[in-house]
Amino acid sequence: MPDTLTADVSGAEMMANLREIARWVKLSGSAEEREALGFIEKRMKEYGFRTDIILHDAFISLPGKASVLVDGAPVTAITQSFSLSSPPGGLSGVPVYIGHGSEADFAGRDLRGRILLMEGMATPATAQRATRAGAAGHLHISHHEHIHEMCISPVWGSPGNSTKAGMPATVVCSVNNADGGAIRDALAAGRQPVVTLNAEVDTGWRKTPILVADLDGPGGPADPFVLLSGHHDTWYFGVMDNGSANAGMMEVARLCALHRAKMKRGLRVCFWSGHSHGRYSGSAWYADAHWDELDRRCVAHVNVDSLGGVGATVLSNTASMAELHHLAAEAVTQQTNQPYKGKRKNRSSDDSFVAIGIPSMFGTISEQAAKHEAARNALGWWWHTPHDLIDKVDEANQVRDARVLGQAVWRLLGDAVLPLDHAAMAQTLLDDLAPLQGALDGRFPIAPLAAAAARLKDSATAVMQRASAAPPGAVAAVNAALMRVSRALVPADYAGGERFLHPHALPMPDWAVLQPIRDMAATTPGSDAEKFAAVDALRARNRLAFALREAQAALDEAAAALG
Question: Model pTM?
Answer without folding.
Answer: 0.97
